[in-house]
Design a protein that fits this description.
By secondary structure, chain A is an all-beta fold. In chain A, the strands form 2 sheets. In chain A, strands 2, 4, 5, 6, 9, 10 and 11 form a 7-stranded mixed sheet that branches. In chain A, a hairpin with a 6-residue loop joins strand 4 and strand 5. Chain A starts with a strand and ends with a strand. Chain A is globular, with a radius of gyration of 14 Å. Helix content of chain A is 0%, strand content 44%. In chain B, strands 2, 4, 5, 9, 10 and 11 form a 6-stranded mixed sheet that branches. Chain B has a 5-stranded antiparallel sheet with strand order 1-3-8-7-6, with no helix packed on it. In chain B, a hairpin with a 2-residue loop joins strand 6 and strand 7. Classes of the chains: A mainly beta (116), B mainly beta (114). Chains A and B meet through strand 5, strand 9 and strand 10 of A and strand 5 of B.
């Protein structure tokens, strides 16, 4: 079982509220990722980070923002939640120093966000 | 366009039976292919990872195959159990990207009935 954690697991919130989804890992991984997944659909990369003070946008445009002040912590923030943000958000991390053939992304349990 | 297609979209089998899930991809260049299991409301968990030179890899009752020439992979589940009910996701990684870009399929939703 991977040591990557997400809180909250479930969140129901009203439109216009500011929310932060927490993600932390204790494996010392430099690379971290945020994915968005709708039911029955593939995962879409929305943000990633190579390390502290490094953040990049992913393939899917997202109104969320991320920060990486500490290696183990990669929070995602929505300044003003909207119903269109309703989705599952998955955090992952990986170790870039391993062999590419054994390169692995470890996923957290996810946060199910519902914006009413 | 780099894509990963999985079939069937959903599958129902009886406990104890075997099944095979399919994955076709167009990702190029190719680095490796993984199969993940995702339980409802959970994050994906890796089952197998195969590189270009590997054509079969087993993990308990799960056996994955890879044909890099035809760009096809399959995941065979033997003697299915109720706990096998989950979404099985095929993920392909391209070579040459420092990010190790992953391309995800939509998954096959497997339901095992008693």
């Amino acid at each position: 079982e991977a040591d990557i954690y997400q809180t909250p697991r479930y969140l129901v919130i009203g439109t216009g509220k500011k929310i932060t989804l927490e993600c932390s890992q204790t494996m010392g991984h430099d690379k971290m990722y945020w994915y968005q997944q709708d039911p029955g659909m593939e995962l879409h990369l929305i943000h990633y980070s190579y390390g502290v003070n490094s953040t990049e946008k992913g393939d899917l445009s997202s109104e969320s923002t991320v920060s990486r002040i500490r290696t183990e912590h990669f929070p995602l923030t929505l300044e003003s939640a909207r119903p269109s943000h309703t989705s599952q958000y998955l955090c992952a991390s990986s170790d870039p120093h391993g062999l590419e053939s054994s390169y692995e992304q470890y996923f957290g349990p996810g946060t199910r966000l519902t914006v009413t | 366009k780099n894509q990963v297609e999985q079939s069937p979209q959903s599958l129902i089998i009886l406990e104890g039976k075997n099944c095979t899930l399919q994955c076709n991809y167009t990702v190029s260049p190719f680095s490796n292919l993984r199969w993940y299991k995702q339980d409802t409301g959970r994050g994906p968990v890796s089952l197998t990872i195969m590189t270009f030179s590997e054509n079969t890899k087993s993990n308990g009752r799960y056996t994955a195959t890879l044909d890099a020439d035809t760009k096809q992979s399959s995941l065979h589940i033997t003697a299915s159990q109720l706990s096998d009910s989950a979404s099985y996701i095929c993920v392909v990684s391209d070579r040459g990207s420092t990010l190790g870009r992953l391309y995800f399929g939509r998954g096959t939703q497997l339901t095992v009935w008693p």
